[in-house]
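Quick log. Single chain, no ligands specified.
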Amino acid sequence: MDGNALLEAVRDGNAERLAELLEKRADVGATDAEGRTALFLAVQKNDTACIAQLLAAGSDPNRRDVTELTPFICAGANGFSEALRLMAESGADPASVNRFGGTALLPASEKGYLRTVQACLEAGVPVDHVNYLGWSALLEAVILGDGGRLYSDVIQKLFEAGASPHLADFDGKSAVMHADELKQDRVLAMLTGTLEDPQHPAVEDAKALASAGRWEDASETVEQALALDSDNLDLLYYAGYFLAEQGRCAEAVAFYRQALTVEPAALEFHYYLALCFRSMGQTDDALREFDEGDARSDENPFFLYHKSNYLRELGRHEDAVQIMETLVSRQPARYDFWFHLANSLRSLGRHAEAIEVIGHAVRLQPDNPLYRDHLERSEKLLESGE
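-> predicted structure:
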């Protein structure tokens, strides 16, 4: 049976039509022009009901689209923990990689998706896998994180799972060395075993409750402690975090706003606000929080880099290009920035510019096959006029 109707049912979120088509054995392997199956489309929408139906009907979580991305890795890159778990239980390959050589764990760690990091680890995704940029999940969380509360928890989760803090990147720098260079003091202490700053007892209790799936109880535990210590930034963060993980982002926003009132210099809370607004589909508000954080961060690339990621997710590559141009002007030795800029230029069909830009990454790391492959592909696209 023609699978196009199946793709349309998923795009429309029509669960009844989807069930009818699957009953009639519609082709779950059918793809759209981008090579995406119905399962892939369902993952992009984080529609777990559709995902479960399609997996039960035999849809392949390892099937790649034209960009070599799988539904499983897509779930990791977007922080869709339950979708990832469903696919892990249905034969997803935990060691599979995207075109950049990254497993599902790497983008989850890069973006601070703590629950998805845990889901990846539970699914058996290798903790010390290194991508074509030379980074493991731990290195990504340190280099592309901010050392704040969320990223500290991600790093702790990876470290406890056996991630090596001394695994070096292509520049010979380990996560320990990067944390020291970036002045991520709590992260550095954690990775070197010198952390002597236990968290608030209510936070520890709440984390244990959340680990047992008791998210409402975790929220209540932290909020009770806040009633006695209303200016505690740790409590304000976790009050917001536990609510956001329950989908109660509007309530989480209030706690994050309160934290910034208590301590305006706690810039990490702008990132947490941006994540909440992203989850609620409030794009302009999310982008504003990235800008607020960047404006006060003394040219730290954290906020602009993650804003560019978000813009790429939205398909706004022109805007992402402008941000990456700013970042490479600030830090011309960051080969990853040149690489991401070249990717966005290629997505826009600006192949001559992409070739020039990726050349900077090649010069910085002449032995890296990822950049040379990108250069060759862009040259072929330019020659073919695509």
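Residues 123 and 141 are 19 Å apart (CA to CA).
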